[in-house]
Amino acid sequence: MSGVVSLFSGCGGLDLGFSQAGFNIVWANEFDKDIWETYEKNHVNTFLDKRNIKNISHKEIPDCLGIIGGPPCQSWSEAGNQAGINDERGQLFLDYVQILKAKQPLFFLAENVSGMLHKKHSQAITNILNAFNEAGYNTSYKLLNALYYNVPQDRKRVIFVGYRCDLQKQFNFNSLVRTFPIPTLKQAIWDLKDSVVPAQNNNTSSKLCNVPNHEYIQGGFSSIYMSRNRVRLWDEPSFTIQAGGRHAPIHPQANKMIHVGKDKWIFDPNSPYPYRRLSVRECARIQTFPDEFIFYYKNLSAAYKMIGNAVPVNFAYAIAKLIKADLQPQCRQTIQEIPLQLSLNLI
């Protein structure tokens, strides 16, 4: 029952997982106006600061027991330019460290894409770890696949967890409990197969959804999209849910695509069902958001972006649960030491 600050919050998949594990998210920051309504309506007990994190003084961020969040990942992405720490967005990682240094919570968690472990970023990784150490934290990191933590999706992400040095603890990734069997698309979205609707013109939100957000983006498929198979079948987990609707995987009702040449695939003309992208709600299910978590948007591109950038809720929960177990005694003691006005907001 601990107060946590969330940075680079997005729509709050990481926040929801930590909440489910018993943490209380007291303050969050998100600069993207397309996300604000979704965050505020789904995290009603959290104060959302909407300013650019660079314009927020450390003194305006509440004292807390933990800091969580994933700084923007585009500069580290395997699909991006891999500018890494030299990119302005890469510098946000160091801004995260400066906040950590100023607030000194018991722990922190930072999440990023697998591309940051590319050999070209090896020095940047060393610098980041040194910065965490200089901020006063024993830090562990590992590349994890959310697939093994009750998420029906192949999704590899780098997770950093640090414990304040005076606690004399180290987060042990080997203690994370893997869940088996691997969840499938059928388990995640089978019941949605007959109720989906297409987006309206220009991929604006439809008014005809009987299931909230159960609409899919329309439009052509680029040569990049057609460079590999994009279909996983019902008895398989999904491909990674990405932050762009046009890159959403194809619904499993269709046959797998046919390889016809180097980096060239086609849709099977004999497929018994048509090829369509996964809907917004189907992507949310695969990211393990509950159905009562409603996404607010005018254009579907904003919906796919916020869902694709989120940390899968079940993945976040698995990590948060272990952090809570590691720090339970310290959490109780620290809450007692926090001034009364703040502690009332935390428990």
TrEMBL record:
Residues annotated as catalytic: C73
Keywords: Methyltransferase, Restriction system, S-adenosyl-L-methionine, Transferase
PROSITE patterns listed in its UniProt record: SAM_MT_C5
Any one GO MF annotation of this record: DNA (cytosine-5-)-methyltransferase activity
InterPro entries: C5-Methyltransferase, C5_MeTfrase, SAM-dependent_MTases_sf
Cited Pfam families: DNA_methylase (PF00145)
GO process terms (BP): DNA restriction-modification system; methylation; negative regulation of gene expression via chromosomal CpG island methylation
CDD domains for the chain: Cyt_C5_DNA_methylase
EC number(s) reported in the record: 2.1.1.37
Superkingdom: Bacteria
Family, similarity comment: Belongs to the class I-like SAM-binding methyltransferase superfamily. C5-methyltransferase family.
Annotated protein name in UniProt: DNA (cytosine-5-)-methyltransferase
Provenance organism: Chroogloeocystis siderophila 5.2 s.c.1
